[in-house]
Every structure is written in C-alpha cells, then in structure tokens.
Specification:
mainly alpha; 14 helices; 72% helix
Length: 385
C-alpha cells in the first residue's frame, strides 16, 4: 500500500527533527563563550539542556490543551478522541523521574563522545527492556528475540571498540572521555528501560492520548529537574566539572553564555523546538502507520546523524563503526520481527511453492510418458486379455 502525502511528510518530519535534536545538542556542546566569570570557556551544561528537552515535551501538553479548547469552542468534541481523562497525573511522575535521570546521563555522555555513537548506543535499551519485561511483566522472549539481543550486543561492542581504537586525540574528544561517555549512555539505557516497563505496566492501562502523556512527563521532568538545577549549583563536583566554579551545574553561567553566543542560543532553541516536533511526528507515525515503521525511521535517523557528523568534520570515518551500525540495525530487526524475518519467511514460502509446482509438473510428465496400466484403470494390461 502506497503512503499518502501526509504520511510521507510525517515520516520526513520525524527523521529531520529527531536528527536536529541530537545535532543541535552536540553543536552547543562544541561551542565556547564568555561565562559569568568573564572568561571564555566551553558550554558544559547537560542538566540545563535536559531541562530544555523537557520544556519541548511539556509544549506537547500545551498544544493538546489548545486543540482540546478549539474543539470545545467549535462544539466538535465528539470528533476528538480524548480517551480516558479520569486518570491521576501523578502516575507520570515516576516515568518522568526515570526520563530525567536517563536524559541527564545521556547528555553528559553526549558531551564526551560522538553524536553518532550516542545515537547508536541508545539501541542498548532493547536488551534491558527485554530482561526487565521478563522479570516484571511476565513476558516471554522467543528464540528470534534472543538472536536479536545477542546481535545488538555484538553491534554495541563494535561501536564501542571503534571509539576506543579510533577516538580523536583532541580537546573535544579524548579517548578516555569517549569511553566514559559511551558507558554513561549505555548505563542510561537501563533507566530508560525501567521507564518503558513502568509505562507498559501502569500507564497503558489508561487510554490516554499520546500527546497528553508526553506532555505530562515533560511537565514533571521540567519542574523537578528545573528545581534540581538550583540545588546542583551548591554541589561541588571538583575535577568532574568543567565549569569555572567547578559546580555540578550553573544555570546562571549557562544563560550568560547563551546570551553571549548566538550559536549556543540557536542550538538551544533548536533542541527545544525539535524535541516537540519529534514527539508529535513520532506519535503521528505510530498512529498513521505503525510502531514498527517508527522504529525503522529511528534507525534511518541514526544513519543520517552519522553521515551529517562526518560531513561537518566532527569525527573521522570509521569502517568498524559502520559495521557496528548495520549489526545493531540487524539485531533490532530480528528482535522486532521486521524486514529480515519476513524476507526469510517469504523466500521459504516461494521455495515451497516452487517445489510444489515442480512436483506437480514432474507427476504430469510421468503420467504422459507412462500411462496407467490395467492394474490401476483396466487398460493396456496383457494379463487382462
């Protein structure tokens, strides 16, 4: 079935905005600007960037309320599927906290490693989600899913090995920093897996519109992490912090740097806006097409980010990373039972059909060359005369 124009636009929007989200965050990480101490230093504010991401998600809730109000004014609420509106919004607090912790860790890792590695290593969430689903949801992992998990593990090892062997020796990306960043990203996937299992167990029982669900998680994440940013200013991180005052986070320094650099400002706004449109496009793709299509498009986004970082000169070409990407993609396809398994099943079916046709054709040829005898039909049997 051919895609409609609307579906094509949504798919392109998801890939483009998802890529912009990662690229804009890494772009800001690579910049330097004058901070609160009057000196020029690198923009190292992953916690504030995470707050910006939650602000983008929170905007989905604002958009949902605007759409709801529009239908109420136009008296077309019956045409809008609002699902179950009798839920307690606090059910989104635990997944928001998980998202807050996972996103913060990933943004710290992104500041240390490549944007392409960041996107590829996020595929580790499949492994942890599968294991936690067995433990807490009673799910069953089939043989093909196990094959996908081990394939993803192999792909992760390849991507990590390429970073260790071919990491650039520069101020932006030293080898030790790259390794630490990769490990932080993988650790964050454990928290993301906990979030996904929680949402499946407690949230999906309510028929809540996806934009509203994303918006509530964004609201709690924005509120909690926004307040924690103030607390982080009073925590001394020592050598682990690149900030002038060596605090865990310094929101004032971040805003001063944003004000002193239009590039950081543009990248920050791009992060906020792109995550909002990315969530909207992802939800719409799942609704209009399928969750499987959304996963495939997310893999295309990973490849697009890798190619873009090569074009921008943020990293060198690594064959091992390319191999790791395709192994990761193969593992995801095996786990989700798409592309690879259906193709194998289609080939087997075609071969079975071909064998059946060949057997039928061979039987017809035999009957023509060797007609039935009297023992079977009463004709051409000498003994019957």
């Amino acid at each position: 079935m051919a895609w409609t124009y609307k579906q094509i636009v949504l798919a392109v929007m998801m890939v483009v905005t998802g890529s912009i989200n990662t690229i804009s965050t890494k772009w800001a990480d690579r910049q330097s600007a004058v901070g609160r101490d009057g000196n020029n230093h690198s923009f190292d504010h992953p916690f504030l960037q995470a707050v910006g991401m939650f602000l983008g998600e929170f905007s989905c809730l604002i958009a949902f309320q605007i759409i709801k109000l529009y239908h109420r004014v136009r008296h077309t609420e019956q045409e809008q599927n609002l699902g179950n509106q009798g839920f307690n919004p606090l059910i989104f607090l635990p997944p928001a906290i998980c998202d807050m912790c996972g996103t913060s860790l990933m943004y710290i890792g992104l500041n240390l490693t490549y944007a392409s590695s960041f996107q590829m290593l996020r595929g580790a969430v499949i492994i942890f989600t599968a294991l936690l689903s067995v433990a807490f949801l009673g799910s069953t992992i089939r043989k093909m899913m196990w094959a996908g998990i081990f394939t993803v593990l192999l792909g992760l090892a390849m991507v990590g090995l390429s970073d260790i062997l071919f990491g650039d020796q520069s101020a932006q990306t030293d080898t030790n920093g790259i390794i630490a960043g990769d490990l932080l990203i993988i650790m964050a996937q454990i928290i993301v897996a906990v979030q996904m299992v929680y949402e499946e167990k407690f949230v999906t029982r309510y028929s809540i519109p996806a934009m509203q669900a994303v918006g509530w998680e964004g609201f709690f994440g924005f509120t909690v992490l926004g307040l924690l940013n103030i607390v982080f200013f009073y925590i001394d991180a020592g050598a682990f912090s690149k900030l002038p005052n060596q605090k865990l986070e310094d929101p004032v320094d971040a805003f001063i740097q944003i004000g002193n650099s239009w590039i950081i400002l543009l990248a920050t706004v791009g992060n906020i806006v792109s995550i909002a449109f990315f969530n909207f496009a992802g939800i719409s793709v799942t609704k209009e097409l399928s969750a499987t299509t959304r996963m495939v498009l997310d893999s295309i986004r990973t490849l697009f980010i890798w190619m873009l970082t090569l074009f921008l000169g943020w990293q060198g070409f690594q064959v091992l990373q390319l191999i790791g990407f395709f192994i990761l993609l193969s593992g995801m396809c095996l786990y989700n039972n798409i592309i690879i398994v259906p193709i194998i099943q289609h080939i087997r079916e075609r071969r079975a059909q071909y064998r059946n046709l060949r057997d039928i054709g061979g039987e017809n040829d035999r009957l023509i060359n060797d007609p039935p005898t009297a023992g079977g039909s009463g004709f051409n049997d000498p003994a019957s005369t």
